[in-house]
Specification:
Elements lengths: L7 H5 L3 H18 L12 E4 L4 E4 L3 E2 H16 L5 H17 L10 E2 L6 E2 L8 E2 H17 L5 H16 L16 E2 L18 H9 L7 H6 L12 E2 L2 E2 L11 H4 L17 H18 L11 E10 L5 E9 L7 H4 L5
Antiparallel strand pairs: 1-2, 3-4, 4-5, 6-7, 8-9, 10-11
Helix pairs in contact: 2-3, 3-5, 4-6, 5-6, 5-7
């Protein structure tokens, strides 16, 4: 990333359309220019700090982040930011790395080494299969399988490799012997010791969608209704700042709940017995905006032009990285960030 592209004052001075383009283009460049050198897969973190742009690259490849990176590459091809052949070449290299990676009943770990494919533990007992991160990867893979539909040897190989990984994930095995809920982790060393049930409402809707759609290892519908939809923070129905939320924790939770699952899943017209998911996402965003404008805890900077709370990583003054709450700039009150996002040109 060029130094001038990281100047927040210069970015803030851009007109809205130019600012949106700059943010989207830089998002793609993180995954394209900042990828793991050996595999082309997404690194968990890569932070440029200081006047010289010192590169603090994390050597861990992020499986879920790779799924998001694949979708960013599709957008980049569609908008002319990179050549289609170049994207196919990069995807081919990424698939080689994913196919040699160690998997656990088809599921990938949260982190892996890009060169060897070996698992990098996230914590002492989280050292193997991570079903949620695998679902984010599969979402990106399936988008690529649909987008690169040309009848060429390279594209056919890509689609075949994607099918190999997609068909190999044993989603129903992650019910821990037929229970009515999916489990986040499994380890050959620790079994089900993490015992983390995947229940809603949160970013894991896509995990259940992938599990239900699997051509070989699908879950029974009751696993969704008795598992994800039975979560303690699933049904809500209360109002916040005058806006009713049908689903989710108090105040809706971080905005990545509205982002992750819907990178590949179109919420327009998506309804079930629990919610209209387009309407839910818009309500969640409005609550988030209203909370920042009200700023009940007096946080510095929150307001009409500084909102959009979600976890992220930022550099500190001492060049370390921290997990923090960040904000998204806005010059005017939007209906919903998704409403402002244009389809690929």
């Amino acid at each position: 990333m060029q130094k001038e592209d990281r100047n927040p004052k210069a970015l803030a001075a851009l007109p809205d359309e130019a600012l949106i383009d700059a943010v989207q283009r830089q998002t793609f460049r993180y995954f394209w220019d900042g990828a793991d050198a050996a595999s082309g897969l997404a690194l968990d973190r890569r932070t440029l700090v200081g006047a010289t742009g010192e590169d603090l690259a994390d050597e861990r490849v992020a499986i879920g982040g790779t799924g998001f990176g694949i979708m960013a590459m599709i957008v980049a091809v569609e908008r002319g930011w990179t050549a289609r052949d170049a994207a196919l070449e990069r995807l081919g290299r990424m698939m080689e790395a994913l196919l040699r990676a160690r998997r656990y009943h088809g599921a990938f770990p949260h982190f892996m080494d890009g060169a060897s494919g070996e698992t990098i533990p996230m914590s002492p007992k989280d050292d193997a299969g991570d079903l949620v991160e695998t679902s984010f990867l599969c979402m990106g893979l399936l988008c690529a399988r649909q987008y690169f539909s040309e009848d060429t040897a390279v594209a056919r190989r890509l689609r075949s490799d994607i099918d190999t990984l997609w068909h190999g994930v044993e989603w129903n095995w992650f019910t821990q012997g037929g229970r009515d809920v999916l489990y986040w982790h499994w380890s050959p060393n620790h079994g089900w010791a993490m015992n983390h049930e995947v229940r809603g409402w949160n970013e894991c809707l896509i995990t259940y969608l992938m599990a239900a759609a699997s051509p070989r290892h699908a879950i029974d519908p009751k696993v969704y209704h008795r598992g994800f939809a039975a979560g303690p923070d699933f049904l809500n129905g209360r109002s916040y700042h005058g806006i009713e939320l049908p689903l989710g924790p108090p105040n809706g939770g971080p905005l990545f709940f509205t982002h992750y699952s819907f990178c590949g899943l179109d919420p327009h017209g998506l309804k079930d017995r629990y919610a209209d998911y387009w309407d839910l996402n818009c309500r969640h965003v409005r609550v988030n905006h209203a909370h920042c404008v009200a700023n009940p805890r007096g946080h510095k900077g929150y307001g009409e032009s500084c909102w959009g709370l979600t976890p992220a990583t930022t550099p500190t003054a001492t060049s370390r990285t921290i997990r923090t709450t960040t904000t998204a700039p806005s010059r005017r009150r939007p209906r919903c960030p998704a409403c402002r996002t244009r389809p690929p040109r």
